[in-house]
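Thread: "does anyone have the structure for this chain?"

Original post by V.I.:
We have the sequence but no experimental structure in hand. Need at least a predicted one for the grant figures.
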Amino acid sequence: MAPDLDVACQLSVLVPDPRSPRLPESLDALAASGYRRVVLPPFDADAVDVPHLRALLADRGLVPIAMAIQLPEADVAAEDPGAQAAGAALLRQSLALAVALGADQLNGVPYGLFGAPRGTTGSAAFARSAAAVGRIADEAHERGVAMVFEVLNRYETSAINTARRAMDAAVTEE
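Reply from O.Q.:
Generated one for you, C-alpha cells below.
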C-alpha cells in the first residue's frame, strides 16, 4: 500500500511563474504525479488572474501554498520605521493573496531579507521581525491561514538559520 502523503512541489521547477502558458499542463503533471499541494513563487497578484489561478488549482485538486518575502525597502526587521511599515504591508498583501487563492498556508521568508547576508542580524532587528511577523501570523490564523517560515542556510540569510533561532522567533513576545 502506498503511503498517504500530503506532498508539495514548488511550481518554479516546471514554469517560471503562474503567467506561463504551460501552467495548465504543468498542474496536470503535478496532480497526475500524486502531489496535493503546489508551492507558488512570489508573484505580483495584480499581474495574474487570481480567481482563474485558484480555479485551475481547484479543478486539479491541488491546494496552493503562497509565499511571503521581504524587500530592501519593505522589511519588518529594518531600523527605518517606514521600511518596517512597508514590510508589514507586504506581508498583509501576501496574506490577502493566500486567502484569495484558497491557500491554508503562507510560507517563505517573512522575517527578513532573502539573499547573501551583509552582516549579522542583531537582537533588535530580530525582535522587530519576530513581533511584526507574530502580529501578522495572528491575523493569518483568524483568516484560516497558517503562517510558516523557512529556516535557511547562512548563505541565504543571517536572520534565522538554525533550529534554535527559529524556536526563539516562534516564542518571542512584544
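V.I.: this helps a lot. Residues 8-171 form a domain with the TIM Barrel fold (CATH 3.20.20.150).
O.Q.: and Strands lie at 8-10, 37-39, 63-68, 105-108, 146-147.
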